[in-house]
Design a protein that fits this description.
Helix content: under 10%
Structural class: mainly beta
Shape: rod-shaped
CATH architecture of the largest domain: Sandwich
CATH superfamily of the largest domain: Immunoglobulins
Distance between the termini: 145 Å
Strand content: over 45%
Protein name: Ig-like domain-containing protein
CATH topology of the largest domain: Immunoglobulin-like
Keywords: Disulfide bond, Immunoglobulin domain, Repeat
Number of helices: 0
Length: 416
């Protein structure tokens, strides 16, 4: 049997032959064999040379690699040699990675290629591939330069451009923008005010969305989302409609109405102020002396009822003045000015002339219609034509018609 020197790879046969298995470069050198017996000693020396190829990396040993932020790069490292070398990478920062390795940022494949994804400027630096074997080592250094690319904002998530809401509802306008560097979001409100953060009225989310809570008529209009960075800007316009109406007093569709009214001394006077609108308007009476009374109000002589009616008890001559009813909601305000005249005695209008309910005239003739009336205070005369047109004229009630053929009814119902 052969002898084993304990290394496992080297054995000696009974005939004295030295066997070396899996020769490496470390086995090179001089080997001496000594033969001896009773007759004497003889020896022979042999020199062993091991032929091997050191590691060699096929790619260039130094390389400058440029990339932009967000991109990925591949760094091959193909190593050859005899015996076959193993390779590993030393990343920028000193981390050692060996194949196979895969994660969300760095991968190393069995062939030695390094793959990096979603690059950032902070990834710039030197990356070293080292191939080693029993015969030596070889290095390849890749210098990675990552440049930050600026891109103009793009609004990638948008709400419906037009929305109609009920009064008091809530709404969110989405406005998430992509770009490099990360865009800053600003909002321009219907009032033309600019906001870049939340306040007591509006809530801005981290992604740029805007919440408007408990909307009022004043919140209706255009909301403009503006995304800005160093590379440019982009904007998106949203239209908000609120289902509501400004106040209307007693059916007068104007902001300000002036009326004349009378009251008899020592009587009770009721002045209506029925206000309609959405949301329901708040009614306030402005009394002589600039005294404000909000509905409801109940005093010893003056009352303002829930429906807005002003009640004056025991009317005095000093009540000859202007009484102003003001109705307000979020949509605006309407004002009715009542010029009240206090008289000693009231007399209903009475026509002076016997009136004819039917009057015939001829084509081309000038016709005078007399409809004068007495009363206290002096009544206003209102004529209504067959086509519905109305004319308010002086106390004498005279109305001239030229070049017409008309049949006119003049009576109490149409002359008040």
């Amino acid at each position: 049997m052969g002898q084993d020197n304990g290394r496992g790879r080297v054995t000696v046969t009974p005939e004295g032959t030295l066997v070396i298995r899996q020769v490496s470069v470390y086995d090179r050198g001089r080997y001496k064999c000594v033969a001896s017996n009773a007759a004497g000693v003889d020896s022979v020396t042999m020199r062993l040379q091991v032929v091997a190829a050191p590691p060699n990396i096929l790619e260039e040993k130094r390389q400058l690699l440029r990339a932009n932020t967000g991109q990925g790069v591949w760094m091959p490292c193909t190593a050859q040699g005899d015996p076959q070398p193993t390779s590993h990478w030393v990343l920028f920062g000193g981390t050692v990675v060996r194949p196979p390795k895969t994660d969300s940022k760095v991968s190393v494949f069995p062939n030695g290629t390094l793959h990096m994804k979603n690059l950032d400027v902070s990834d710039s630096g030197k990356y070293e591939c080292i191939a080693t074997s029993s015969t030596g080592s070889e290095r390849r250094v890749v210098t990675l330069s990552v440049k930050k690319i600026e891109t103009a904002p793009q609004i990638v998530e948008t709400s419906d451009w037009r929305t109609e809401l009920e009064y008091g509802a809530n709404i969110r306008f989405d406005c998430e923008a992509a770009g490099e560097p990360k865009p800053k979001i600003l909002w321009r409100l219907p009032s033309n005010d600019m906001i870049a953060a939340s306040n007591e009225r509006y809530l801005m989310h981290v992604n740029g969305s805007l919440d408007v809570r408990d909307v009022k008529l004043a919140d209706a209009g255009e909301y403009v989302c503006m995304a800005r960075n160093a590379a440019g800007d982009e904007s998106k316009v949203y239209k908000l409609d609120i289902d509501g109406n400004p106040p209307v007093i007693n059916g007068y569709y104007q902001n300000r109405t002036v009326l004349k009214d009378t009251a008899a001394k020592y009587s009770r006077k009721m002045i209506d102020c029925k206000a309609e609108g959405k949301p329901p308007p708040k009614i306030t009476w402005i009394m002589p002396g600039n005294i404000f009374l909000s509905a409801p109000y109940f005093g010893s002589r003056i009352n303002v009822h829930y429906n807005g009616t002003l009640e004056i008890r025991n009317v005095r001559p000093t009540d000859t003045a202007e009484f102003i009813c003001m109705a307000q909601n979020d949509g605006g305000e309407a004002v009715m000015v009542v010029q009240l005249e206090v008289t000693s005695q009231l007399m209903r209008p009475i026509f002076k002339n016997p009136f004819n309910e039917r009057l015939l005239t001829q084509l081309g003739k000038t016709t005078v219609l007399n409809c004068s009336a007495d009363g206290q205070p002096p009544p206003n005369i209102l004529w209504t034509l067959p086509n519905g047109t109305q004319y308010q004229i002086g106390n004498d009630g005279t109305f001239n018609i030229k070049c017409l053929v008309l049949i006119i009814l003049c009576g109490l119902p149409s002359c008040h």
